[in-house]
């Protein structure tokens, strides 16, 4: 008998590992801080940053040390940087790029390096591989958080 391997039954899927770690982190936040609903904007921002950090740390630890972006993200969290991901302004493509190695252009490659944690130190091929995996994990994170929101609102 063959068992289907999907995120609902597979305890080793990224979604499952992320969900367990994230829910545990949120539970710890609630238990350690005895948080009442945030009343002012400073409390809301503090709570938002704590939840965001918990989400990123849960995602990176669910992936483990095999990916450079997860190691870089955990390193940033451990070093307690104020902002894990800086807001980016969208820039247009570099016109007339003569770099035959890629089709992104030099400006877009630089942006990609800034967006993927740890991307600055990777060669281009590895950067693309890590980017694909990072995007998969971000999608899984969004799906899990939507399900949590759905279950908490019902």
UniProtKB/TrEMBL annotation:
Residues 87-106 are annotated as: Disordered. One of its GO terms (biological process) is regulation of DNA-templated transcription. Keywords: Transcription, Transcription regulation. It comes from the Eukaryota. Residues 12-80 form the IBH1-like N-terminal domain. InterPro entries: IBH1-like (IPR044660), IBH1_N (IPR059002). This is IBH1-like N-terminal domain-containing protein. The lineage of its organism: Eukaryota, Viridiplantae, Streptophyta, Embryophyta, Tracheophyta.
């Amino acid at each position: 008998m063959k068992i289907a391997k999907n995120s609902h039954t597979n305890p080793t899927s990224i979604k499952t590992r992320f969900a367990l770690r994230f829910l545990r982190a949120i539970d710890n936040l609630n238990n350690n801080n005895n948080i009442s609903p945030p009343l002012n904007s400073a409390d809301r921002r503090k709570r938002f940053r704590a939840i965001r950090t918990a989400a990123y740390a849960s995602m990176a630890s669910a992936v483990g040390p095999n990916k450079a972006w997860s190691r870089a993200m955990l390193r940033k969290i451990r070093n307690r940087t104020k902002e894990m991901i800086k807001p980016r302004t969208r820039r247009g493509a570099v016109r007339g790029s003569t770099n035959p190695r890629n089709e992104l252009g030099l400006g877009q490659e630089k942006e990609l390096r800034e967006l993927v944690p740890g991307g600055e130190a990777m060669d281009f091929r590895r950067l693309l591989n890590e980017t694909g995996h990072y995007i998969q994990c971000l999608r899984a994170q969004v799906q899990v958080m939507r399900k949590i929101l759905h279950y908490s609102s019902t």
